[in-house]
Structure formats: C-alpha cells, structure tokens
Automatic annotation (TrEMBL):
It comes from Gimesia panareensis. PANTHER family: BLL7424 PROTEIN (PTHR43737), DUF1501 DOMAIN-CONTAINING PROTEIN (PTHR43737:SF1). This is Uncharacterized protein. It comes from the Bacteria. InterPro entries: Alkaline_phosphatase_core_sf, DUF1501, TAT_signal. The lineage of its organism: Bacteria, Pseudomonadati, Planctomycetota, Planctomycetia, Planctomycetales.
C-alpha cells in the first residue's frame, strides 16, 4: 500500500558504485512494544540513567572530511601538512577553526570539538561501520553490515518522543559510503528499525514525502475502509501465525496508517510551511534545507535524525571541493545552533557532526590517485588515526575542546577517544542504557556498546 524508491549513482575511490534499492513498506517506522519500552526504562533506571525527552541530529559527512582543514588546523606545521586555509579565532578563547567557518566562529560557545578521535583504519567501509555501529568487521572487500546502527538500537528501545512521529528518520536518505541504508540500518534487529527516508530533496520547490500520501486514487476514507477490511482478514490468520511476524507488521502498518491519516507528521515534513527568513538562514541548498527539516522533525517528536552530506573523498583538488562545501556546512550548522537556541531546544537536541574518517595530515601533490593531469591540485588521502567530532546541545557543554593531536596532526597526543566514547555520550543524552543487549541472528546477546565511556568533560 505504501512505497518509496531511492536511487543514486557515482563511485567512491574504492571503485564501488552506489547501489539502487527499492524500499517496500515503511521500514524504520516501527517502534518497540510497550512492554519492551517499559522493560528498557526499568533497566536504565537500575543503572542510574534518568528518563529523557531528548533527540539527536547526526550530520554525516560521507567520504571523510579533513580535520586539519576544518576544526584542528596546524598553522605552525610544515607547508605540506598545514593545508591551504588559515585558522580564525572564535568567540571561545583558544578554540580556533578554519577561516571558512566564520559563522560557526560566532557561536562556538554552543558546541564542543573532540580532536583526539581515532579508529586507525583508512578503509571507507570499516571506518563507516565503526562510526555508525561501534564495531569493525567489514571492509571494501566485504561491505554488508554486521551490526545495527546506534540509532536503530536506541530507537528500538526508546521509540519516538511523540507516538505520531517516526522514531528514526534520514534526510534525504540514509547512505554510508554509497550503501543504502548501509550502516544506518537495523541489520539483525530487522528492517523495521531501518530509518524512514524522505527520499527527495527538501530544497526542491515540489518537495514531497511520498510515504505520507496514500497510493494514487486512494482517498483517506477509502484507506480507512480498507484498514477495517484488512483487520477482518487478519483475525482469521492470526490464530495460525506462530512467528510473531504479524505483530511486527501490525506495528509497521499502524505507524504508516497513523502518519498518513494524521496531521502532525505530515505537517512536520511540510518544509514549505516554514518561515522564509528561517529557510534563508539555513541556506537555500540541499544541505541547509535538510538540516532545517531535521530540526522540524525533532521538534515534532522524532528521536533520531540523520542528514547526509556527501562528496568528501578529496584525494585531489581539495581546494575546489572545500571552497564549495565548507560555506554550506558553515551556514547550515551555525543556523541550526542559533535556531535551536531561539526555540528553547538547545537542552533537548544534541547535534553531532562527523564522517567515517579524516584525511592524511600530509598532503599529496594531486597526482596520487587523481585523474590525468591532476598534478598540482593537492589533496589528502584516507586517515583514521586522527579525526574530529563536533557535539553540541542536549546537555553537552559548549566551548570545550577534548583531546589534542600532535604537532603534525597525525595521531592523538592527549585524551585519545574512540567511536564508543562518542556513542556512550550520545546515549547519555538520550537516556539510553549502553549495556542493553540485543539478540543477533544466532540468538547470541550482543551489547549495545562494547567499548569506551561517556566523555565526562562534556557534561
């Protein structure tokens, strides 16, 4: 009854094409049963984790952004390391960032930067799996995900903050290194814990989420009539179903039905209803409008939203890519923090900005892996030994720097942080127990996060 198609094209440096997937139904819109939620809350209370009404917006820089060109510049390093841009001061003494981020420099007191993040892999897929699931185990030679995303686990347990909203949404789609939903998906939890994807560009004048409308020719009244008819047939087959599949499908169907026939979700997704001044503040481009839509969704009751910023695989022609991308990131990120503050949402919404890894501190000459005649357009290769993560809001203190890299930026020199530390911190904000266990395909219990701890300096 409900359907959506997603497609994308292009290749990463690994040589693998982005895949085309057909998503049938409204996967990702189901939530845990009431008994599961109550049990999870009881476990969380036993571990001293208070109940929260908080949400997360994850801004995913797919392809790997360079820490030394964004948030950890090294102006005193040799020329082949320090990069093209200079640092500028922010409104927080001692927190310098790239000159390409003048808007963020004015609101740096609203976010903090982890400069010592690392997982030590330069493989896109391994790095993405580490950052989004907290585990390794995949590679460019074996890309299927092995674990559910941190968002899938959290929203399975917590559900949406408002029952009329999907718990987990990706704008405009969920994509990790070209895989959809890739490492954002539910994996062994089931497709019902994949994110709900908007599937189209919020910057388009005719932006519409197809999943929120009935199939052509089917009115809301006919939809209600059909639902009553389906209930009759379900009663006949429920007695013979021993797998629990019907109950699972019930949750998906009910969420789809509630969203299509109700007003709140459709209004939240209707970005054209937003004030023009606010839309201009975020930027009239895909990234800016996607971030604005994410804010609308968490404000309406979605628990976890991811926003995809692709194209960061800059082996060559680094300046061309950064000159295009960084101003858009600066506009969208600064607008989000300012907007959350003005709406009184700063303490309720955590913003996270990161990618699967960083780029080599030492720049190449542009001829390394680049197209013919690319020599002279410098770039950076894969690097997972030193990375950054920006976090702000949701109770996370702003204006702080956690950790540091050495003078060349190629390794942590102080307070090393791994992906699990970031995940523990996210779960702390959400009120999610990191010691929750979920059965994998073999029935073996798997802990939500198996390493790291909360980054206490941020609280």
């Amino acid at each position: 009854m409900f359907r959506v198609e997603f497609g994308n094209s292009g290749k990463y440096c690994d040589g693998l094409s982005r895949r085309h997937f057909l998503q049938v139904g409204v996967a990702g819109m189901g939530s845990a049963s009431l008994s599961q939620i109550l049990h999870a809350k009881a476990n969380a209370a036993q571990h001293g984790i208070p109940a929260k009404d908080t949400s997360v917006i994850l801004l995913w820089l797919d392809g790997g952004p360079s820490h030394m060109d964004l948030y950890d510049l090294k102006p005193e390093a040799p020329s082949e390391y320090k990069g093209i841009w200079n640092p500028i001061h922010t409104n927080v003494p001692g927190m310098d960032i790239t000159e390409m981020f003048p808007l963020q420099a004015k609101c740096a007191d609203k976010f903090s930067i982890v400069r010592s993040l690392h997982h030590n892999t330069g493989d896109h897929f391994t790095g993405g799996h580490w950052m989004l699931t907290g585990r390794g185990g995949v590679s460019g030679g074996s890309t299927p995900g092995r674990n559910p995303s941190i968002a899938s686990m959290a929203t399975k347990v917590l559900g949406p903050r408002d029952p009329s909203m999907p718990a987990y949404v990706s704008v405009p789609y969920a994509s990790s290194i070209g895989l959809r939903p890739g490492y954002f998906g539910g994996n062994f939890l089931g497709v019902q814990y994949d994110p709900f994807q908007t599937g189209s560009d919020p910057n388009n004048n005719n932006f519409q989420v197809q999943n929120l409308s009935p199939v052509n020719g089917l009115s809301i009244q006919r939809l209600k009539d059909r639902k009553e008819l389906l209930k009759t047939f379900d009663r006949l087959r429920r007695d013979v179903d021993q797998s629990g599949m019907l109950d699972s499908m019930d949750r998906l169907d009910q969420k789809a039905y509630d969203m299509v026939t109700g007003d709140q979700a459709r209004q939240a997704f209707d970005i054209n209803a937003e004030n023009d001044k606010i839309r201009d503040q975020y930027g009239r481009h895909t990234w800016g409008q996607s971030v604005l839509l994410a804010r609308r969704l968490v404000e309406a009751g979605t628990t976890f939203v991811t926003v995809h910023f692709g194209g960061w695989d800059h082996h060559w022609n680094l300046q061309s890519g950064m000159d295009s991308y960084l101003p858009r990131v600066d506009q969208a990120v600064s607008a989000l923090f300012e907007d959350l503050a003005q709406r009184g949402l700063s303490e309720k919404v955590l913003v996270v900005l990161c990618g699967e890894f960083s780029r080599t501190p030492r720049m190449n000459d542009g001829g390394n892996g680049g197209p013919p005649l690319s020599k002279g357009t410098p770039g950076r290769d894969h690097w997972g030994n030193s990375m950054f993560c920006l976090l702000g809001g949701g109770g996370v203190k702003g204006g702080r720097i956690v950790g540091a890299t050495n003078r060349l930026g190629d390794a942590p020199a102080d307070r090393p942080v791994r992906p699990g530390h970031i995940h523990h911190t996210i779960y702390r904000v959400l009120g999610m127990d990191p010691e929750m266990h979920f059965p994998d395909h073999s029935g073996r219990p798997t802990i939500a996060i198996d390493h790291g701890e909360v980054i206490h300096e941020l609280f």
